[in-house]
Design goal:
Layout lengths: L6 H4 L10 E5 L8 H5 L8 H11 L3 H4 L4 E6 L2 E6 L1 E2 L2 E2 L16 H5 L2 E6 L2 E6 L9 E4 H5 L4 H24 L2 H17 L5 H14 L1
Antiparallel strand pairs: 1-8, 2-3, 4-5, 6-7
Helix pairs in contact: 7-8, 7-9
The protein binds iron/sulfur cluster (2 copies).
One iron/sulfur cluster (SF4) binds next to loops.
Length: about 210
């Protein structure tokens, strides 16, 4: 998520589509795990991140809570993020490898790319000053390595709209209503497991779209 930042201050100023070439490839990071070591509570997890990590670790949302993930305030809502320990991300092994690589969160999949949401869509941006290694060009869709990319992008946009709308509602609501909004989102999209993710997400999202 990007907010209150000028595009040119945090990126190379360009917007990229999935077929564009972008200087983002750190060559497999060979021997470096700096990003995973210095991260704080910035890796906010969307429902598909939890769905994937549950599959990878064979743990439920509740099993992971306070062990692998934590809850934090984000724009009026309470959402999960990756938990850190003294070595950085708790999913980083002693030999500095990501133990959930195949199902790593979207944030990690994109890095050093990010998303810029505008009007009714989003584009990819290249965040600058994030990686010290020389980066080479790669196609955005190859870099983000995301299965079912079309469905995934539609999901990303829909989720973004829901949390913006519900976050705004929560900020304007009474304490009691705010708690109800927060708990409803957590129950609906995180604590209740998904089977076939994308169609089930769309079904569950319906009532929040029209609320
Ligand atoms: S700093 Fe660059 S090379 Fe090191 S882990 Fe991050 S992206 Fe990879
Ligand atoms: S989930 Fe994996 S890639 Fe992401 S910060 Fe943790 S160790 Fe690094």
């Amino acid at each position: 998520m990007l907010r209150d930042e000028r595009l040119e201050d945090i990126s190379d100023g360009r917007r990229y589509g999935i077929n564009d070439l972008v200087k983002a490839d750190a060559g497999g990071c060979k021997g470096c795990s700096k990003c995973c070591e210095i991260m704080t509570d910035t890796i906010i997890l969307s429902p598909i991140d939890i769905y994937r990590i549950e599959k990878e670790t064979n743990k439920s949302f509740n099993d992971m809570l306070d062990v692998n993930i934590e809850l934090g305030m984000v724009d009026g809502l309470i959402l999960p993020h990756v938990k850190t320990n003294k070595n950085g991300c708790n999913f980083l092994s002693e030999d500095k490898r990501c133990t959930i690589h195949g199902n790593r969160p979207d944030f990690c999949r994109l890095f050093p790319l990010g998303r810029l949401y505008e009007e009714d869509g989003f584009s990819y941006i290249l965040q600058v000053g994030q990686c010290d290694k020389p980066l080479t060009k790669v196609k955005v869709k190859k870099w983000i390595d995301t299965p079912e990319l079309k469905e995934h992008e539609a999901y990303v946009l829909l989720w973004h709209k829901i949390i913006r709308k519900m976050g705004q509602k929560a900020l304007e609501a009474s304490e009691e209503e705010r708690k109800s909004i927060v708990m409803s989102l957590l129950n609906e999209f995180y604590m209740t497991p998904f089977g076939d993710f994308y169609p089930e997400f769309i079904e569950r999202a319906r009532k929040y779209e029209t609320e």
